[in-house]
Fold this protein.
Amino acid sequence: MEQRVSLVTLGVDDLGRARRFYEALGWTTGAAPDDDVVFFQAGGLVVGLWSRAALAEDSGIEDGGMEDGGVEDASGWGGIVLAHNVRSPAEVDAVLAEADAAGGTIVRTGAPTFWGGYSGLFRDPDGHAWEIAHNPSWALAEDGAVRLG
Amino acid sequence: MEQRVSLVTLGVDDLGRARRFYEALGWTTGAAPDDDVVFFQAGGLVVGLWSRAALAEDSGIEDGGMEDGGVEDASGWGGIVLAHNVRSPAEVDAVLAEADAAGGTIVRTGAPTFWGGYSGLFRDPDGHAWEIAHNPSWALAEDGAVRLG
């Protein structure tokens, strides 16, 4: 697994509110007003905003959430998923195998995704979630930096 | 606030275990064996491993933690803090003022830190924590990339 981060996805309860917050900080996105995911190019990586419920489901995480002001579940998840993009589906499977051998927990094995790529997901020994993804739509520079189109 | 991420700190319950996990994935660090923080250069940003309890305390977050296998608190925090490094203490204060005006919650106002820099911290509307930091020991490239010494 190369030593880099491609995408930090922040799960949010209200996408419009979250988007307005980051835009008020001066951040700009190419997302359309009604897109359900908002990506910001942030240096050599991307910061994404997505429904926390959708992110949890996509990541195979049971999330107590915060909606009812109640108590969190014991998953230890705070609504953030890191992603590491690679150059092929085979490389996704190879990194997941490394993570498994190293003591990570494979939450989702490599498989085609609804967005047209291929990915799987592991959690590290402290529960931090890493999606390993091949996204044919995102350019990966030689040094691993991700650039939105 | 420029559109970039400088540091992703993963709070961990057992630093040795976490370090061994990332090293088993092939990651390398310049940290000494008994350092209590482990930094990995990860492209133009840094991934850090630090005691989850220390990270929570440093970040002004009340963390239910996972130690007793019990239920999480309602903070919604999963042990991750993002950091955005800037070029001066004054810029730390300016970004915190922007975050405050945009509807973020200022958890820690700008102040000198134990590690010799100056920082403050806000949480976005969904509770995601951002430390805004001036670290005189870390080079910040013109494009904002962070390079460990």
